[in-house]
């Protein structure tokens, strides 16, 4: 039987259109700059949670995701960054990226404090001592999870993202200053594509928080030489707020990278972060640092400096009607607020999962 040429052409066109209209489910390679293009999904930056019940010792991964350290095997070396990093496999067969060196402790603690404020983070644990077969024995090793089903779909940009202008994005910038993260750059950010209740979620996280809990530097021309990381004494010597501008913007004492993006934070946005963190008990704050294997003296110093910085946010002068919203002010860090900060329903909707009650989302891309 002879086929009609026009029918064949129609089938070819129909197949091509079907392939073009099918939404991608995995990140693809962008030929223009060699970077990944994220898959389609709902961007998520922040989730409201019951802060008072969080376990900051175990962190966002909880007890169930802890690595099985009875046998850790080297897989390959991970390139880039300040610290030595290896991809490894634990006894349970799960893969991790371990970080060895000065940044391991600060990143483990910073991850927990950022998570406590409601932000998406990596799942991290710190092993005080571990043998990595094929490499040797190391102390203070940070394990960062690489769970199955979660795709690392490229980086996101501080200057261009779905959350620019929202209270929650402004709050993330406040957290970077509060933790003294002077290494703020796009290459330290990651989009994690993971299954959610309503389809794929694109979780916007900061993957590298190693350059935290130190000193951001004292003078503009010398900050590169005076900054530090994982430095409890340096972290405690820095104040957070320099002054409050007449228009209600907060001028932070910060000498890190991308300093310009921190110039538009209002009093209300900064105080909102303080109110979230003030809901943490003293035990919870200390647990974040204990999880990173700091000494008892370092835990006291870091927890005290953290509480002091949160109180600087709480003590900012009040301005009526200029911010996105304000909440009742707790008296001090660790004190229960009069009520939980209200949810901004214009940008927050239920995520539907018990572990993630509500989430700040943008429209699907």
Comma- or semicolon-separated keywords:
single chain, 365 residues, 6-stranded mixed β-sheet, 5-stranded mixed barrel, 15 strands, disordered N terminus
Task: Give a quick rundown of the structure.
By secondary structure, the protein is an alpha+beta fold.
Radius of gyration: 22 Å
User: Could you tell me the number of beta strands?
Assistant: 15
- How far the N terminus sits from the C terminus, by CA atoms, comes to 47 Å
Read across the widest sheet, the strand sequence of neighbours is 9-10-11-3-15-14
Strand content: 15-25%
Question: Major sheet: size, sense and barrel closure?
Answer: 6 strands, mixed
Which regions have little confidence, pLDDT < 50, spanning 5+ residues?
1-25, 320-361
Principal-axes geometry comes out as globular
In round numbers, the mean pLDDT is 82
- Separate helix tally: 8
Q: Which structural class matches the secondary elements?
A: alpha+beta
Elements, N to C (H/E)? HEEEEEEHEEEHEEHHEEHHHEE
The helical percent reads 25-40%
Can you walk me through this structure?
With 365 residues, this protein is an alpha+beta fold. Helices cover 25% and strands 24% of the residues. It has helices spanning 5-21, 103-116, 167-178, 223-226, 232-237, 267-278, 282-290, 296-314; strands at 28-29, 36-37, 42-48, 72-78, 84-89, 95-100, 124-133, 136-145, 151-152, 189-196, 199-206, 241-244, 250-252, 348-353, 356-361. It has a six-stranded mixed sheet, with no helix packed on it. Strands 4-5-6-8-7 form a five-stranded mixed barrel. Helix 3 (167-178) packs across helix 6. The protein is globular and about 60 Å long.
